[in-house]
Design brief:
This protein is mainly α and 584 residues long. The protein is built from 30 helices and six strands. A six-stranded mixed beta sheet has the order 2-1-3-4-5-6, with helices on one face. Strand 5 and strand 6 form a beta hairpin. Helix 9 runs parallel beside helix 11, helix 17 packs antiparallel against helix 18 and helix 19 packs parallel to helix 21. The longest helix has 16 residues. It binds one DNA strand of 10 nucleotides through helix 1, helix 3, helix 5, helix 7 and helix 9. This is DYW domain-containing protein.
Length: 584
DNA sequence: TTTGCCCCAC
């Protein structure tokens, strides 16, 4: 009886001092003889938010012969701590002790806690060692443990092993499916994640709120609105929309698929209590759609709604300013963050540097980069370089590109920018030098890739891609578009091509960009369709300047809205202009 | 005589 009462006391502890009081009481009353109460207290002390892991370690050190559960409590604590890798060191110590003591053995929970640490610490070698231990100890039939292992592999980026485990698992539950779906989304294989989700549907496996959140994440990546809406229908049918995380994922899905008004509808009509993530998702949604006013209106309302803005709230507000060129507003938000208790991080700096640079305040942007308290990320210098090109500031461009070279960043776009600046000044010798640099430095080129959803499948296009079944028709469509928009005044932006080739070749180099292929395909597929649906394309990089001009003309000539989501924002082309108002 | 899996904004 006393033990049950004591256990209740442990569970009722909500402050560290209560734990310590209980501990001294246990000591005097001799309750530490009971390994059960001891490990309960250890566990409470090492994992709860008000606990103290170092104190738990102290208690542990005074145990003459720690048992399995004492070790588990400590390992569990480290797994959840800021130094998860220490959990693995403790696991190794435990293994050594277990080999000489019959009172202590590595069990399923030990492995589970340690694997959680491997996932958080991104340690693939430790994950593989745990995998070996699990097999050796015959724990492979434990479905929960197996899912933890699968998750550790996928968080470490080893999706093929995760997939193999999934296929070989003797027992799978919904969490196993969820772990693999989430892993595939995080590993940039959202298409396969959706396939797996659909397989659950056809195989009649029950889906829970975690399943739909992961599947919605896949739709967000792909811009797969049809599938996303189907999932949302299921969410409503299954009454999963009382879960705030599910609603947040839905709002994000709608914005990332290009339907920010539908996102707002969900946001506005939701019945579950909004969390800070809900607000942040909506602010960011408006921000990337260039709707700065609506974003900032909500941002201003946070405090009235009992929400303390966090680092992401500020990032979202700054993003809104960045995409709308609201320099004064943005800098004032940035300057006031710290006094509101949120220290700017790299992303905040990235926003404000980009904001100032584009506005032509290159010197201020430069000074911020040079005075910031952490080592600047290369993207900050890239912002400065890009804006130097827009504002034709050779000196600043040289400073920025020198920094990038120093940092070992060999990105082709940076070289192209610098070369363009020289070219604009007629400094052909410098243009030649940059080009030589590009050859000797083995410049990296990230391949451009665009997606479009048509007739229920996602079609992928690379630059000058001829792998699509209908590639000939697509290329013909592009020629038709070029012909028609030339009559509308289109002139190819051949200045964007670096190679020393003739004008016509330069134009050809531009005209089969992945986003052009995708848009042409989209126009082909919805030609004659009664529905006035826009062409929606997703690109992995920033949209190219020539494509931007082409789509403006195309939207007008073909009387069709074109929506392109690039790496950082949405462009909505309608009647010859773009929602970004050419500010991007 | 207890504990463990999978999820949202950046």
């Amino acid at each position: 009886m006393a033990r049950v009462y004591m256990e209740t006391l442990i569970q009722r502890c909500v402050t560290f001092s209560q734990i310590k009081q209980l501990q001294s009481h246990f000591l005097t009353a001799g309750h530490f003889q009971s390994s059960f109460l001891r490990s309960r207290l250890l566990d409470r002390c090492s994992v709860s938010s008000f606990g103290d892991l170092s104190h738990a370690v102290q208690i542990f050190r005074h145990i003459p012969k720690p048992l399995t559960n004492d070790w588990n409590a400590i390992i569990r604590g480290f797994a959840a701590s800021s130094q998860p890798s220490l959990a693995f060191s403790w696991f190794c110590s435990m293994l050594r002790q277990a080999s000489s003591s019959s009172m202590c053995r590595v069990d399923a929970l030990t492995c589970s806690f340690t694997l959680k640490a491997c996932a958080r610490a991104l340690c693939s070698s430790a994950t593989a060692q745990l995998h070996g231990q699990i097999n050796r100890r015959g724990l492979f039939a434990d479905a929960l443990l197996c899912t933890t292992l699968l998750d550790a592999y996928s968080k470490n980026g080893d999706l093929s092993t995760a997939q193999k485990l999934f296929d070989e698992m003797p027992v799978r539950d919904v969490a196993s499916w969820n772990a693999l779906i989430a892993g595939l989304v995080a590993g940039n294989r959202a298409n396969e994640a959706l396939e797996l989700y659909k397989r659950m549907e056809t195989e009649g496996i029950s889906r829970n709120e975690i399943t739909v959140v992961a599947a919605l994440g896949a739709c967000s990546h792909l811009g797969a609105i049809k599938e996303g809406e189907k999932i949302y229908d299921y969410i409503k049918d299954a009454n999963l929309d009382q879960n705030v995380i599910v609603v947040n994922a839905t709002i994000d899905m709608y914005t990332k698929c290009g339907f920010v008004d539908k996102a707002f509808q969900v946001f506005d009509q939701m019945t579950s209590k909004k969390s800070v993530v809900t607000w942040n998702t909506m602010i960011m949604g408006f921000a990337v759609h260039g709707e700065a006013q609506r974003a900032l209106e909500i941002f201003e309302k946070l405090n009235h709604n009992g929400i303390t803005p966090d680092d992401v709230s500020y990032l979202a507000a700054l993003t809104a300013c960045r995409h709308a060129g609201l320099v004064e507003y943005g800098t004032s938000i940035f300057n006031n963050m710290a006094s509101n208790g949120v220290e700017p991080n790299m992303k905040h700096y990235g926003c404000v540097v980009d904001l100032l640079s584009r506005a032509g305040r290159l010197r201020e942007a430069h000074d911020i980069i040079c005075s910031m308290p952490m080592l600047p990320d290369p993207v900050l210098w890239q912002s400065l370089l890009g804006a130097s090109e827009i504002h034709k500031n050779v000196e600043m461009a040289e400073i920025a590109s020198r920094k990038l070279i120093e940092m070992g960043v060999n990105n082709d776009g940076d070289f192209v920018l610098l070369s363009n600046i020289y070219a604009a000044q007629g400094r052909w010798k410098d243009v030649g030098r940059v080009r030589d640099d590009m050859e000797t430095k083995q410049v990296k080129k990230v391949p451009g890739l665009s997606y479009i959803e048509a007739q229920g499948t996602i079609h992928k296009f690379y630059n000058s891609d001829k792998s699509h079944q209908q590639w000939r028709e697509i290329y013909e469509k592009i020629d038709e578009i070029r012909f028609k928009i030339r009559e509308d005044g289109y002139v190819a932006q051949t200045g964007l091509v670096l190679h020393d080739i003739g004008e016509e070749e330069k134009e050809n180099a531009l005209c089969y960009h992945s986003e052009k292929l995708a848009v042409a395909y989209g126009l082909m597929m919805i030609d004659g369709a009664e529905e006035e649906s826009p062409v929606r394309v997703i690109k992995n990089l920033r949209i190219c300047g020539d494509c931007h001009v082409v789509f403006k003309h195309t939207s007008k000539i073909y009387k069709r809205e074109i929506i392109v989501r690039d790496r950082v924002r949405f462009h909505r082309f309608k009647d010859g202009s773009c929602s970004c108002r050419d500010y991007w």
